[in-house]
Write a structure and sequence with these properties.
With about 290 residues, the chain is mainly β. Helix content is about 5%, strand content about 60%. It is built from two helices and 17 strands. The strands form three sheets. Strands 1, 2, 3, 4, 5, 6, 7, 8, 9, 10, 13, 14 and 17 form a 13-stranded antiparallel beta sheet that branches.
């Protein structure tokens, strides 16, 4: 059993102090199976940019998140491990814009869409639920190794208006698979697959943007659209060369082997006066080496 408490003090805001208690417990059911649970309150200061934008934003409270987690850990053998975890996070006292009542400030930023800040109040709420599952086979010599991870997330945030919308960070389904084979003591080959559903984003008002010659978000459709699903396959080969007291390890990796087009985000192209898109890397071979002594 572990318990703790944290106190934060930030004298720039009207309510400067906050207390964050938390606790966790782990129990071994059998020599190979254990369960764990934890709960806690976590507080975070408002971002400086929010506080500096409007004098009244000094009345913003520290953001609050209540976490509840339960998990299980099981060893099928010394080299095969399974873990599973469910969680719920309840958010409150999140800053929301008064002038743009559908906008939750915590969803802003360089990656997550519009980040204009005016007068705000600490009345935003949210909830995130999900689970994570992983199965790992360790490399123990010549043969197969690998890892399988799957995550599910459902998030809902509410500003002053507009109803519940998903968090900008939400990708409901994420799957990662690593599968490798050690051919010999000095040869290793591995394949990596990643899939994730698209991220929410706020679309542009195309008509207003075209007339203005710049991007104008349709805030009535805040976080209502999603980017296309992400999928990528990587292939890697490692070769080790022994030289007495040291070894040279070389590798070559083919990232995005299938050269799939994965959209990172959308932006307004001022030159073409239309919506453009920023892509992740396409097919990209890389190589390298390291010395082991």
């Amino acid at each position: 059993l572990n318990t703790g408490i944290r106190y934060d003090y930030f004298d720039y805001i009207t309510n400067p102090g906050s207390v964050s208690p938390r606790a966790g417990i782990s129990y071994k059911l059998t020599p190979v199976t254990s369960i764990n649970a934890s709960a806690g309150i976590f507080r975070q200061n408002p971002e400086y940019i929010w506080l500096a934008t409007d004098q009244s934003n000094k009345d913003l409270n520290n953001l609050r998140a209540d976490h509840y987690i339960f998990g299980i850990d099981h060893f099928f053998s010394s080299d095969l491990r399974m873990t599973a975890e469910i969680y719920e996070k309840n958010y409150s006292e999140y800053p929301v814009s008064v002038d743009n009542p559908t906008y939750i400030l915590v969803n802003g930023g360089a990656e997550y869409g519009p980040n204009f800040v005016t007068k705000a109040v600490s009345e935003g709420k949210g909830k995130v639920r999900g689970f994570d599952f992983s199965l790992q086979k360790k490399l123990t010599g010549i043969g197969v190794y690998g890892m399988f991870n799957y995550s599910y997330m459902d998030s809902k945030f509410k500003a002053l208006a507009g109803g519940e919308v998903p968090g900008a960070f939400e990708q409901k389904h994420q799957l990662n698979l690593i599968l490798g084979y050690q051919v010999a003591n000095d040869w290793l080959i591995g394949l990596k697959y990643k899939f994730a559903t698209g991220k929410p984003y706020t679309p542009y008002n195309v008509q207003a943007s075209t007339l203005a010659g710049r991007g104008v978000y349709n805030m009535e459709l805040y976080n209502s659209e999603r980017t296309p699903d992400y999928m990528r396959v990587d292939l890697r080969v490692d070769k080790k060369f022994g030289f007495g007291n040291f070894a040279l390890v070389t590798y070559i990796e083919f990232q995005n082997l299938l050269n799939r087009e994965n959209v990172s985000e959308y932006y307004w192209d001022n030159d073409k006066n239309e919506v453009g898109k920023i892509l992740h890397w396409g097919f990209f071979p890389v190589g390298g080496f390291s010395l082991q002594f």
